[in-house]
Amino acid sequence: VEEVQITILPDSVEIVEIIPVSVEDSLVIQEPAEMMDSALAIVKDVRPSGVFLDKRDNSNYEWVRIGEQIWMTRNLKFKTTFSIDPVTDESKGDAYGYLYDFPDAIQVCPDGWRLPSDKDWMILESELGVDNVELRSIGHRTTAYAGISLKSKNGWVGDGNGMDNFGLNILPAGMATKKGDKRHLNQSSHLWSSSKSMFGIWI
After folding, report:
1. What is the spatial distance between Cα 176 and Cα 140, in angstroms, rounded to a whole number?
2. Distance between CA atoms of 34 and 39, rounded to whole angstroms?
């Protein structure tokens, strides 16, 4: 897989990794909780990156600013009843996070963070240089090397490694079926959005 795919979720696959974003109003520009007065506070910190503490399990998550958005750069790994660990190789640590079905993904984000919408992804893609026509289309992004720019520099099979130009460090955690069968580890990345359409949920 050479590009990060923005596609419609097939009926047979419902469990994917998530990278939460923080939000102010309708944009993804809110700072992590320890840097603001409330969940919807005005941005006060202008550093390009930092670390957020999830107080639920004391896990640290790095974040990065891309344009006017703040994104976590590590896959969420907060255990729920239905979460699935995509790897069995302990040498990989917890960088790959957990895979979540959609109901879990909507609710599992830490306080002050949320699942990105399709609009959020479009804002990010625009920041990367994806042209307006492709921005509003369905399928792979072929302009501006968007996928390669976001993918991690290692971990992908074959010649699939990216350049991680923006620090988002998207890892190939694959996906899982409703039955829990893991697929495509080290081959692809499937990221939830909160947006729904007549066809299903955008990922």
Report:
1. 21
2. 10
